[in-house]
């Protein structure tokens, strides 16, 4: 799947992933209205609105980007009904040829991490049958529990030719609270980064590993160091756009050939219709066109900075 | 809710939580057979088997323990259907007067952590209505992203009078890989522990905080240090029983009055019918009685060591 990701990035000339993190506030009124008319102001109504919103977005951008990254929390907040919308979204994106990165940030001890890996990337056995419940292509993984928590994901990745992105240095303001603590001369995120490199070498694709890393666009200097420490890891870069990261901040996350990183934007794309410079050009009904315009602008911003 | 937890621990004389982490292998054949006859060898069939298994366990132990801890991964592996069984289990346990600790180990950046907090502990707004999708009483939280990831849970806990247990030192063999790294003279888990103490002081119940900690029974010496560093934090102690922790290892997790910690056992209780010394005394049909016997033995083991 990492090989396919690289191929699609090249083909679409877009190291860009669209974060499908729908908040009800981002969804134009005509969509929520219709969903609530059909299902009431219920969890099922919210889930329907989320799904219809996503479908419109995906239809508008699928030919321009290699991947999407649904953030499962935004679905889980609506309970089981929300998770049905997550599942439907994953399936629809895959049908459209998009690579799906499940932003699930799971991580637990051995057998429990295995259950997450099976549920999200692999197949679960029920009697004589097997099922792929959520069936994302990649998942994000929290490393705090160490190798026990990550290896079960790697085992499933090996079987299924799928991949993970391990949290190394996250994009949020307080990520340094623990991640930047110095172990001798090295911050914790470098120790984690080295471990990602070691894990990754056990599971190589053609030029990059099935084990990638998450490093926030908001910390470009750290991105530079981590790029060197993890030469085989694809870096998933959140924090572009709404969180403050700019194209020029991204240069050091990439390798010289413009590969090695994929940049996520969520709000900046999916809620573009509510924001400058798009809100004057696009009506709420045309939210998906606004998202497409934001994707094209983001591609250009990154290409100017990186390629 | 932390006050209620303390009260129930006293009333039932049991600092014990039953981990509802059902693997299909733990479920007696008569239950899976019936579920598969009704729903086929499907995800819905697996979920039904899990739910019926849980129901039997809960009915057999609810008068003996204050709390249960369903591990959501074991449900999530069966997709949406599995999560329905999780939801049903949470609801049933609450009806039986049990406190429910959702072992979800979530943790993300700001708005995303808020979505998890809302979905699991709080209420989500849909139009003019609100819903409590999963409605656990406590949730476990991963601290790797720092305060941004934890504070949204604390906000919801304050509103709802619910609580969290933050992962500090986990019970698994490789937990030391990052958690034991020395920052100056202090291991990372102590830094996290001090932060748990600081977070906790912002959200106090009567004698303990709404912010607790997870510290594995498998690391008793570290438990001793952490008990002192976080005097107001209730400690959720996994790793007893099947993972190797014994009653005598637990002494230092508790305060002098026998409060301050609650010990989880999962496999050791819910799969007792498959294990010595219970398997000769209980048939598969009596798996719930075996679980009850294991709970009583665990209570005695802990009481002998601690009280």
Helices and strands, with pairings:
2 copies of one chain form a homodimer.
Chain A: H1 2-12, E1 16-18, H2 29-39, H3 43-61, E2 67-68, H4 73-76, H5 79-95, E3 99-106, H6 110-120, E4 124-126, E5 129-131, E6 138-141, H7 147-160, E7 163-169, H8 176-179, E8 182-183, E9 186-187, H9 188-201, E10 211-215, H10 220-229, E11 235-237, E12 261-265, H11 267-270, H12 287-306
Helix pairs in contact in A: 2-3, 3-5, 3-12, 6-7
What does this entry look like structurally?
The structure is a homodimer of 307-residue chains. Chain A is built from twelve helices and twelve strands. Chain A has a single domain, classed as Aldolase class I (TIM Barrel, Alpha-Beta Barrel). In chain A, β4 and β5 (129-131) form a beta hairpin. Chain A is of the alpha/beta class. Helices cover 45% and strands 15% of the residues of chain A. Chain A has helices at 2-12, 29-39, 43-61, 73-76, 79-95, 110-120, 147-160, 176-179, 188-201, 220-229, 267-270, 287-306, and strands spanning 16-18, 67-68, 99-106, 124-126, 129-131, 138-141, 163-169, 182-183, 186-187, 211-215, 235-237, 261-265. The longest helix of chain A has 20 residues, at 287-306. The mean pLDDT of chain A is 96. In chain A, the strands form three sheets. Chain A has an eight-stranded parallel β-barrel, surrounded by seven helices. Chain A has a two-stranded antiparallel sheet with strand order 4-5. Chains A and B meet through α3, α4, α5, α6 and β4 of A and α3, α4, α5, α6 and β4 of B.
């Amino acid at each position: 799947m990492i090989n396919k990701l690289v191929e699609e990035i090249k083909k679409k000339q877009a190291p860009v992933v669209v974060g499908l993190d729908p908040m009800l506030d981002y969804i134009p009124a005509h969509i929520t209205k219709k969903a609530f008319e059909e299902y009431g102001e219920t969890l099922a109504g919210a889930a329907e609105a989320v799904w219809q919103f996503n479908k419109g977005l995906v239809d508008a951008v699928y030919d321009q980007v290699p991947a999407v990254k649904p953030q499962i929390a935004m679905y889980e907040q609506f309970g089981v009904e929300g998770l049905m919308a997550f599942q439907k979204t994953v399936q629809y994106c895959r049908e459209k040829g998009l690579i799906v990165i499940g932003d699930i940030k799971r991580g637990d001890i051995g057998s429990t991490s295995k259950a997450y890996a099976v549920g999200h990337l692999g197949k679960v056995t029920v009697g004589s049958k097997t099922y792929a419940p959520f069936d994302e292509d990649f998942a994000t993984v929290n490393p705090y529990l160490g190798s026990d928590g990550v290896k079960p994901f790697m085992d499933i990745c090996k079987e299924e030719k799928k991949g993970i992105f391990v949290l190394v240095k996250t994009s949020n303001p307080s990520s340094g609270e623990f991640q930047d603590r110095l172990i001798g001369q090295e911050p914790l995120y470098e120790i984690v980064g080295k471990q990602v490199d070691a894990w990754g070498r056990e599971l190589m694709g053609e030029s990059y590993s099935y084990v990638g890393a998450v490093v926030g666009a908001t910390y470009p200097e750290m991105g530079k160091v981590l790029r060197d420490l993890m030469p085989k890891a694809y870096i998933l870069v959140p924090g572009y756009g709404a969180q403050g990261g700019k194209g020029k901040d991204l240069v050091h996350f990439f390798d010289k050939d413009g590969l090695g990183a994929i940049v996520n934007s969520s709000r900046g794309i999916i809620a573009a219709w509510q924001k400058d410079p798009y809100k004057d050009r696009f009506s709420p009904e045309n939210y998906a066109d606004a998202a497409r315009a934001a994707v094209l602008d983001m591609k250009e911003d990154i290409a100017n900075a990186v390629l």
